[in-house]
Design brief:
Blueprint: H1 3-28, H2 32-55, H3 60-99, H4 118-130, H5 132-138, H6 140-176, H7 178-192, H8 197-233, H9 238-250, H10 256-269, H11 272-297, H12 305-319, H13 323-343
């Protein structure tokens, strides 16, 4: 066989392989985010699955099924359960606005004593209490833009919940066949870094669990605890504000941006003692971010907060709301792998 013939055959083979790879990526692309999130859930839930499987007589399929139902009940259940009340609040607000019965309570005189913003805030509040339609007309462009953003966010959040449900189910399938999944992971990592297979697997496992618990776990805890405080003090649309706290916490932004305005509202509309109790409840919740997160993330994860923040923002931009959750995880894995590669001692060539 001539050299030209061999070259032509190689080009054809390379072209066919490249075509198959491109087609495969195109087919899988719509499901990449869900599959990635499913893998992250499976890795994070594996210790609980292993314990539950042992209690059920090493029945992997039953343990995975029970764990899937528990995850859906604990994580998706509260969100789905709060949606009807949130929708009712929006509908009631819209009905009052259309009928002209929407009113704003009279501002407290204490607001005037607040430094800098006291007088203008009191004047605006009083104007809204006496002539709400005029105030709304004054801010109509801003309110219209905010409404569009809110509707888009609700639609994106609904899609993210559906994607998360699918990801949890896929994670259950992975856990039910965890022996095959582990072998596949070992073979894949072994092909990439055969000399450090176990170390890389342990690094990925610890990073996923540490970041998931440190970022998502703390964010969920803060959102739930803050939501309890909002509900007890009587804040309307509790689900919306708790959800806003969840998003901010995952983005590594303090939930004080939500809690502080609500605390101001509570001080202006409630007695002093309930308002002080509300603040006392939220102070430890705000501190969770600085106390609990380093403890959880210290278990195998050593990445700067800037890396986590960029991962969350980049995930949001690239993959939508679901990217908030796994963007930080993926980027921290990449960061740790890069540091490991840079610090690895290489044997000099003879």
């Amino acid at each position: 066989m001539t050299t030209d013939k061999i070259t032509t055959d190689n080009i054809i083979r390379f072209g066919l392989v490249a075509l198959i790879v491109v087609w495969s990526i195109t087919i899988i692309a719509p499901f990449v985010s869900v599959l990635l999130w499913a893998v992250i859930i499976a890795i994070s839930a594996y210790p609980a699955f292993f314990w539950l499987s042992g209690k059920l007589g090493d029945r992997s399929g039953l343990a995975a099924t029970v764990l899937v139902f528990l995850l859906l009940a604990l994580l998706v259940g509260p969100i789905a359960g709060s949606l009807p009340s949130f929708a009712d609040s929006i509908h009631s607000l819209a009905e009052k606005f259309r009928s002209g019965t929407l009113t704003v309570p009279v501002a407290s005189e204490n607001i005037r004593q607040w430094p800098l913003i006291g007088e203008p805030l009191y004047a605006l509040w009083q104007e809204a209490a006496t002539n709400l339609s005029q105030v709304l007309d004054k801010f109509r462009p801003q309110l219209k833009g905010a409404g569009v953003v809110l509707l888009g966010s609700i639609a994106a959040a609904t899609l993210a919940i559906l994607q998360f449900v699918v990801a949890v189910i896929i994670a259950g399938v992975i856990l039910a066949h965890h022996h095959r999944a582990i072998q596949l992971a070992k073979k894949l990592v072994g092909r990439i870094v055969p000399e450090s297979q176990e170390r890389f697997l342990a690094l990925i496992e610890n990073t996923v669990r540490g970041v998931t618990m440190g970022v998502v776990g703390v964010a969920v805890a803060q959102a739930i605890l803050a939501g309890i405080g909002f509900a007890v003090i009587g804040i309307p649309a509790v689900a919306f504000w708790a959800f806003a706290c969840l998003v901010l916490a995952i983005l590594q932004i303090s939930i004080v941006l939500v809690v502080a305005p609500i605390a101001i509202y509570v001080f202006s509309s409630h007695e002093l003692l309930p308002a002080l109790l509300f603040v006392a409840w939220n102070v430890p919740i705000l501190a969770l971010d600085n106390i609990l997160k380093p403890i959880l993330m210290g278990r195998g994860v050593d990445a700067p907060m800037l890396v986590i923040f960029i991962g969350a923002i980049g995930g949001l931009i690239s993959f939508g709301f679901l990217g908030l959750f796994f963007g930080a995880v993926v980027l921290v894995i990449a960061y740790d792998l890069m540091i490991f590669w840079l610090d690895e001692e290489r044997t000099p060539e003879p």
